[in-house]
Specification:
mainly alpha, elongated
Length: 85
Protein backbone atom coordinates (compact mmCIF):
# COMPACT_ATOMS: atom_id res chain seq x y z
CA UNK A 1 0.00 0.00 0.00
CA UNK A 2 2.05 2.88 -1.34
CA UNK A 3 0.37 6.14 -0.37
CA UNK A 4 1.51 9.72 -0.01
CA UNK A 5 1.72 9.22 3.75
CA UNK A 6 4.02 6.22 3.28
CA UNK A 7 6.28 8.20 0.94
CA UNK A 8 6.52 11.11 3.39
CA UNK A 9 7.43 8.70 6.18
CA UNK A 10 10.02 7.02 3.93
CA UNK A 11 11.61 10.39 3.18
CA UNK A 12 11.64 11.29 6.87
CA UNK A 13 13.28 7.96 7.79
CA UNK A 14 15.86 8.36 5.03
CA UNK A 15 16.64 11.89 6.25
CA UNK A 16 17.03 10.79 9.87
CA UNK A 17 19.32 7.91 8.89
CA UNK A 18 21.45 10.21 6.74
CA UNK A 19 21.70 12.75 9.55
CA UNK A 20 22.62 10.05 12.06
CA UNK A 21 25.20 8.18 9.99
CA UNK A 22 26.52 10.29 7.09
CA UNK A 23 26.08 13.99 7.75
CA UNK A 24 28.75 14.14 10.47
CA UNK A 25 26.58 16.62 12.39
CA UNK A 26 25.84 14.08 15.10
CA UNK A 27 29.06 12.06 15.05
CA UNK A 28 32.34 12.49 13.20
CA UNK A 29 32.91 8.73 13.17
CA UNK A 30 31.84 6.88 10.02
CA UNK A 31 29.09 4.30 10.26
CA UNK A 32 30.21 0.79 11.08
CA UNK A 33 30.39 -1.68 8.17
CA UNK A 34 27.52 -3.82 9.49
CA UNK A 35 25.10 -0.91 9.62
CA UNK A 36 23.72 -1.49 6.13
CA UNK A 37 23.05 -5.17 6.76
CA UNK A 38 21.32 -4.36 10.04
CA UNK A 39 19.16 -1.70 8.40
CA UNK A 40 18.28 -4.10 5.58
CA UNK A 41 17.11 -6.68 8.11
CA UNK A 42 15.10 -3.95 9.87
CA UNK A 43 13.49 -3.01 6.54
CA UNK A 44 12.47 -6.64 6.05
CA UNK A 45 10.98 -6.78 9.55
CA UNK A 46 8.92 -3.63 8.91
CA UNK A 47 7.79 -4.92 5.49
CA UNK A 48 6.63 -8.20 7.01
CA UNK A 49 4.92 -6.24 9.76
CA UNK A 50 3.06 -4.20 7.15
CA UNK A 51 1.97 -7.36 5.39
CA UNK A 52 0.76 -8.90 8.67
CA UNK A 53 -1.16 -5.74 9.59
CA UNK A 54 -2.76 -5.65 6.13
CA UNK A 55 -3.75 -9.32 6.38
CA UNK A 56 -5.03 -8.83 9.93
CA UNK A 57 -7.26 -5.92 9.01
CA UNK A 58 -5.28 -3.20 10.84
CA UNK A 59 -4.82 -1.09 7.70
CA UNK A 60 -4.34 2.18 9.61
CA UNK A 61 -0.82 1.05 10.58
CA UNK A 62 0.26 -0.13 7.13
CA UNK A 63 1.50 3.23 5.73
CA UNK A 64 3.74 3.78 8.76
CA UNK A 65 5.32 0.35 8.44
CA UNK A 66 5.65 0.56 4.64
CA UNK A 67 7.21 4.03 4.87
CA UNK A 68 9.70 2.90 7.49
CA UNK A 69 10.63 -0.16 5.43
CA UNK A 70 11.07 1.96 2.29
CA UNK A 71 13.18 4.55 4.10
CA UNK A 72 15.53 1.92 5.53
CA UNK A 73 15.74 0.10 2.20
CA UNK A 74 16.44 3.34 0.32
CA UNK A 75 19.29 4.19 2.69
CA UNK A 76 20.79 0.72 2.20
CA UNK A 77 20.37 0.98 -1.57
CA UNK A 78 22.10 4.37 -1.69
CA UNK A 79 25.05 2.90 0.19
CA UNK A 80 25.10 -0.19 -2.04
CA UNK A 81 25.43 1.87 -5.22
CA UNK A 82 28.03 4.10 -3.61
CA UNK A 83 26.00 7.29 -3.55
CA UNK A 84 26.62 8.02 0.12
CA UNK A 85 30.17 8.36 1.51
Amino acid sequence: MLTGRALVIALAVLTVLWLAFDSQWISRDPALPGTSLSLFMLAVVFAVGAWVMQAGGRTERVPLLVGTALGCAAYVALHAIGFAP
